C-alpha cells in the first residue's frame, strides 16, 4: 500500500531528511546488545555487511554503478526520442580513484551506436565537477544544451546567436517555457554569445511532476499516465547491462534484444 499525506513543515524535504538522519544515528549509537546485534547482522535482509546496507550503490549485487544509476535515464530518453534502441555499445572505465572496497566503476565513458547513424555518448566521473551535469544534443542545424533540468540553451549552425529557454511554473501550476538571450558566462564554450538571461520565478521541481504522474496512474489504474511502460524500461536496462559488460570485458557489445536474450 502507498500512503500519501499532506501536512505542515514536518513534510518539507529539509525537515524530513534531517529527522531521518537523526533517527539513523540515534539507532547506530544505541549500546544495548540487541541493537548491536541488529546493526551487525544484516544478512537476513540480503546485505552481507552493514556497509553494503548503507552503500549499496557500490556493490555489484545491488547496483551496476554509474551507468545504471545515472546513464539509464539518458538511454531511455534517446530510445524515446529516436524511436529505437541502440545496436552496439563500447565502454571504457574502471575503479580509478577510490580504493575503498567498491565493486563498480567510479569512471564510465560509454558510446552507444543507434540505427540511422545516430550516436549517444554518456560520461560519468567522480573526480571533477566542471559543468556539473547536463545533456547536449548536437545536430546538423544546431545544438541544444540542457542543464539543471530546468534550463535549455540552443545555438544555430547558421550563425544565429545563442538563446536560452527556462522552465518556470505558470499560474495554473503547469510548467511553462520562457525564452531570452543567453547568459553566455554560464555556459561552457559560449564565449561569442550575447544577451542576459531572464530571471527565473517560481522554479518547479521536475521530480514533482514525475511523482504526480506516478501517483495519478496508481489512483486511476492507468499505466499510460506515466508516459512509458515496462517494455521501455526493459530496453534501457539491456543497454545498461551490455555497457557494463563492454567496460568489464573490454569488448563491443550488442544491445539488441534478440542478442541479449541469447548472451
Concise summary:
This protein is of the alpha+beta class and 263 residues long. Helices cover 33% and strands 21% of the residues.
Query: Helicity range of the residues?
Result: 25-40%
Rg, please?
22 Å
* Fraction in beta strands: 15-25%
Counted by DSSP, the helix tally is: 7
Shape: globular
Order of helices and strands: HHHHEEEEEEEEHHEH
Helical/strand content category: alpha+beta
Largest sheet, strands/sense/barrel: 5 strands, antiparallel
Quaternary structure classification: single chain
Mean pLDDT: 76
What is the count of β-strands?
9
How far apart are the first and last residues' alpha carbons, in Å? 37 Å
Q: Please mark out the parts with pLDDT under 50 across 5 or more consecutive residues, or reply none.
A: 1-12, 172-203
Trace the largest sheet across and list its strands. 4-5-6-7-8
Question: How would you describe this protein?
Answer:
It contains seven helices and nine strands. It has helices spanning 13-29, 33-40, 50-54, 66-82, 206-220, 230-249, 257-262; strands at 88-94, 107-114, 118-125, 134-138, 142-147, 151-156, 163-169, 175-181, 253-254. It has 263 residues and is an alpha+beta fold. It has a domain at 12-58. The longest helix is centred in the last third of the chain and has 20 residues, at 230-249. The strands form two sheets. The chain has a five-stranded antiparallel beta sheet, with no helix packed on it. A four-stranded antiparallel beta sheet has the order 3-2-1-9. 17% of the residues are buried.
Amino acid at each position: 500500500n502507498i500512503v500519501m499525506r499532506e501536512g505542515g513543515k514536518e513534510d518539507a524535504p529539509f525537515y524530513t531528511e534531517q529527522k531521518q538522519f537523526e533517527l539513523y544515528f540515534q539507532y547506530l549509537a544505541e549500546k544495548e546488545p540487541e541493537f548491536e546485534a541488529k546493526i551487525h547482522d544484516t544478512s537476513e535482509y540480503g546485505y552481507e555487511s552493514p556497509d553494503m546496507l548503507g552503500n549499496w550503490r557500490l556493490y555489484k549485487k545491488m547496483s551496476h554503478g554509474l551507468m545504471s544509476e545515472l546513464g539509464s535515464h539518458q538511454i531511455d530518453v534517446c530510445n524515446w526520442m529516436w524511436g529505437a534502441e541502440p545496436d552496439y555499445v563500447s565502454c571504457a572505465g574502471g575503479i580509478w580513484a577510490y580504493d575503498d572496497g567498491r565493486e563498480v566503476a567510479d569512471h564510465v565513458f560509454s558510446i552507444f551506436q543507434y540505427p540511422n547513424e545516430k550516436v549517444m555518448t554518456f560520461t560519468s566521473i567522480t573526480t571533477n565537477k566542471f559543468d556539473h551535469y547536463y545533456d547536449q544534443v548536437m545536430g546538423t542545424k544546431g545544438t541544444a544544451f540542457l542543464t539543471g533540468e530546468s534550463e535549455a540553451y540552443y545555438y544555430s549552425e547558421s550563425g544565429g546567436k545563442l538563446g536560452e529557454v527556462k522552465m518556470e511554473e505558470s499560474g495554473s501550476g503547469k510548467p511553462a517555457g520562457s525564452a531570452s538571450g543567453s547568459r553566455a558566462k554560464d555556459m561552457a564554450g559560449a564565449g561569442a554569445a550575447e544577451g542576459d538571461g531572464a530571471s527565473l520565478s517560481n522554479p518547479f521541481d521536475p521530480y514533482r511532476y514525475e511523482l504526480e504522474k506516478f501517483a495519478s496512474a496508481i489512483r486511476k489504474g492507468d499505466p499510460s499516465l506515466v508516459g512509458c511502460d515496462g517494455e521501455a524500461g526493459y530496453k534501457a536496462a539491456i543497454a545498461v547491462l551490455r555497457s557494463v559488460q563492454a567496460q568489464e570485458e573490454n569488448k563491443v557489445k550488442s544491445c539488441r534484444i534478440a542478442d541479449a536474450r541469447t548472451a
